[in-house]
Each structure stands twice: as C-alpha cells, then as structure tokens.
Amino acid sequence: GFLAAAIIVVSVWQEPLAAEKKPSSAAMEAITVEADEGIEWLRDKRMYVARGNAKAIRDGVTVKADTLTAHYRDGKTKSNEIHRLEALGHVTIVSADRQAVADRAVYDLDEAVVVLLGDNLKFSTATDVITARESLEYWETKRVAVARGDALATRKDQRIRADALTAYFHSGADGKLSVTRMDAIGNVVITTPREV
Predict the structure, then answer these.
(1) Residues 107-134: tens digit of each pLDDT
(2) C-alpha–C-alpha distance, residues 36 and 166, integer Å
(3) By CB count within 10 A, which of 56, 147, 161, 164 is most buried?
C-alpha cells in the first residue's frame, strides 16, 4: 500500500519535470521521495509530508529524516514546483563528497542553501569537519559554509575555533571538496601540533 502511495505522489509531484531535458534551475530537478509510514498530500497548505524513515533523493544528494516536508508553488508550466524542503528528526544529508548531520534542516531550493539547526551540527568532507551549536549553513552554488555558536573546524591535527566561522570550499583534482580559506570571528583559537 505504501509503495503505491509513494509512486502516485511522486508522479503527480514531478510529472512535468521528466519532460524537460535541461532544468532551468535546481528547483526544477526531479525529486524521489520514500517513507515507511506514508506520504500525505496537503493541498490547501501546498505541501507533501513524508513520515517514518523518510528519504528524498535529488541529483545525487540524499536527505534522510524522521519527517520530510516539501513545500510547493505554481511553476512556470502548468505543474507545481518544490521550492523548500524541511527535514525533522535524525537528519542526515549525504552526497558523494560531503555529509551533514542535524536535528532539523531547511533546504531552500531557489537559493541552493541548506540550514542545519539543533544539537551536534556537523558538516564534513573527505578532509574537513565543521561543527557548531547554533546553526550551520551550506551555500551550494557559492561553496561556502557558515557555522555559528562555538564553531569548530578540524583538518587532521589542525583546529580553529571561534564564535563564527566561514569556510570557502574548492573542488580538487579528484573532484572532492576541501576548505581553501577560513574566516573566523570572535574568541578565535587556532591549534596545531606545535602552537596555540
């Protein structure tokens, strides 16, 4: 019963997207959604809610959470387009070169930014790990992460801690992201094996 419900909702949700060869924006790319307890369509509120081990997949990025809520609006064609995705409870966001963990996440597809909230916020790549206590944002098109509240960035045995950190990423020859520059503001402490 669940599988049929998920297929129906996703096909209604994304039907016109399959016809486009090149989406005009990130918001127009197809999204696949699965959930153990089902997917609910709230037409008056213009949103879909997936509950129970919910998972959304778009363009190689997987978002997992207890509950996923997708907000949609009228698209440029006759169909609807999803512009905001909210994840609540045990959130993990995974792609080939990065991973994020939070209690809650909000993904604005128009701006291509994800905001992580809650306890134990973490954003990691193959070489770098950034944590924070208040919020952690990742701006996908700009390749910038902003960590606020006892922010900490580590790479091997090097650490930088501050009230706020802004990390600028670049893809290396292997195609994987790594931090190339770090701006730190407030109560900055830099630690290496030889100095503090």
Answers:
(1) 998 899 999 999 889 999 999 999 999 9
(2) 37
(3) 147
Q: How big is the chain, counted in residues?
A: 196
Answer yes or no: are the C-beta atoms of 33 and 39 closer than 8 Å.
yes
Residue with tokens 């790594």: 178
Matching residue, tokens 């999204």: 31
Q: Is the pTM of this model over 0.90?
A: no
Measuring CA to CA, how many Å separate 18 from each of 14, 32, 46, 76, 105? 7, 12, 21, 15, 27
- The helix or strand, by DSSP H or E, that contains position 9, with its residue range, turns out to be helix 2-19
Q: How far is CA 75 from CA 6, 58, 80, 168, in A?
A: 21, 18, 5, 33
- Which tokens is 145 given? 């992460």
